[in-house]
Amino acid sequence: MAEERGKFSSRMGVILASAGSAVGLGNIWRFPTETGRSGGAAFILLYLAFVLLLALPVMVSEFVIGRHSRSNTVEAYRKMAPRTPWLVVGLMGVMCAFLVLSFYSVVAGWTLDYSLMALTGSISESQDYGALFNNFVSHPYRPVVFLVVFLLMTHVIVARGIESGIEKFSKMMMPLLLVIILLLVVLSVTMPGAGEGLTFLLQPDFSKVTTDTVFSAMGQAFFSLSVGLGCLVTYSSYFNKQTPLISSALNVCLIDTLVAILAGFIIFPTVFSAGVQPDAGPGLVFVTLPNVFHDVFDGVSWLGDVFSILFYMLLLLAALTSSISMHEISTAYIREHWHVSRRKATWIVTCTCMVLGALCSLSFGPWQDVTIFGMGIFDLFDFLTAKFLMPLGGIGICLFVGWKMERATVRDELTNEGRNLTSLYGILLFLIRYVAPVCIASVFVNQLFG
Ligand code: PHE
Asked: Cα–Cα 20 to 30 A to 369, which of 21, 33, 164, 363?
């Protein structure tokens, strides 16, 4: 007998699961890293504009496709546009999901190890956090072990299904996550030297904006909101008819942006008060924060430990609520396409990502010298997904909803059959049909030929 597809049981579940997907390492690790590399406030302003003008319309479009088709992200196009090349948008999404989950699990594995090190007090014993980080990530197998454990944790939640796995976990963890973030913000902005970090975050210097900055800000908006690869097509296929799509999307964007900015408020004051360069790259939050927690609580090392524990647990939780959503994209596709059980589909995805993830992880250690297009495997996966596949997928998704689907269907989905008809509907439709595809395409053209 065919297994049920499953669905979310409440409106709260919908918002927390979708926000859980959005809020993740993208906010707390990638956002500060990219902001640091790209010079601060000007990057953030661009990012905010892209969230509103590009990522929000893509998110709403994904909701329309998923809820209307009630299918995984490949089947959705097959159902609504049979025998056409639109299917490619879905397939590209599934491929992208495998790649994202693989490199994501590497960093999530680091956070798992750092959480344990914080718990056992071994972070605060170390004197040189930069060396601690470098020795750890370049170790031949230790990070791989943690990446595997992280994927198994993700696996257990996804295998339990939509309501008792994904929804339940997100509902428990998201509130906890917000509390930890607020605690850390208070601590960090009251630190000596915090002012310099706040200036970096709040005073835009537009002379630093290059085509690269624009390209990175667009990638960051897509990555952080989990759009362009069908993640929200998949989640919304489990929504019910009453879920208001526009306001849910607005809520998710708001929560995600707030967390990203708050994460900036946690990280940059600490970066500057530790005297570290803000463009330190992927190690930024792993090197600076223990440093700061150590210095600020000089003499009371257990307090520094408590904050380290809180911070790495925060990263870990955030990573998990996102990784389950990436995993579900491919799990739903494999389950429904090959008619296998959820259990089996989940294993296929988990094992594939273990192998790909190990390749990414090794690019920090023994395979440091292996490069493709001048990039290590980890950087290549990050670059290909966030900067290429996701924005490209975003164009496809917007064009599909804006130009291919029946206008009446789109209207019914977005307004709950006319019951929630507001001027937002018209504005969003305009963004979906014209603004998002044209802007994304021009950023690409500018980057490639500018
Ligand atoms: N949005 C997630 C984050 O910020 C990452 C993600 C990307 C999740 C793509 C799902 C799909 O960490």
From this structure: 33
Is the predicted pLDDT of residue 1 greater than 50, yes or no?
Answer: no
Ligand 1 centroid distance, CA of 419 (Å): 31
Q: Summarize the confidence of residues 387-397 as an average pLDDT.
A: 96
104 Cα: distance to centroid of ligand 1 (angstroms):
9
pLDDT tens digit sequence for 333-342:
999 999 999 9
% of the chain residues with pLDDT over 70: 98
The ligand 1 atom at the shortest distance from the C-alpha of residue 29 is: 12
Domain span at residue 294? 11-449
The maximal CA–CA distance of the chain, rounded, in angstroms, is 68
Closest among 353, 361, 313 to 329, alpha carbons compared = 353
Tell me which of 21, 150, 227, 231 to substitute to probe ligand 1's pocket, judged by most ligand atoms within 8 Å of the beta carbon. 21
Residue 121 within a domain:
yes
Q: Whose CA is nearest to atom 4 of ligand 1?
A: 26
Strand partners, 261: none
* 129-144: pLDDT as tens digits: 888 888 889 998 999 9
CATH number of the domain at 143, please. 1.10.4160.10
Residue 196, pLDDT score: 85
Instruction: Please give the Cα distance from 12 to 236 (Å, whole number).
Output: 13
pTM: 0.94
Amino acid at position 149, single letter:
V
Residue type, 80: M
Residue 5 counted as domain residue: no
Pocket of ligand 1 (CB under 6 A): 21-22, 24-27, 100, 223-224, 226, 229, 231, 322, 325-326
Banded model confidence at residue 218, pLDDT cuts 50, 70, 90 = very high
Does the structure show a pLDDT above 80 at 193? no
What is the atom index within ligand 1 of the atom nearest the CA of 318?
12
Give φ, ψ of 412 to 5 degrees: -60, -45
Q: What spacing in Å lies between the alpha carbon of 21 and ligand 1's midpoint?
A: 6
Residue 299 has what pLDDT?
A: 62
b/e map 411-425, b = 16+ CB within 10 Å: ebbbbeeeeeeeeeb
Nearest CA to ligand 1 atom 6: 226
Residue that is written with structure tokens 């980080």 in the block? 133
Best residue among 23, 98, 325 to mutate for probing ligand 1's pocket (most ligand atoms within 8 Å of CB) is: 325
> What's the number of domains the chain is made of?
1
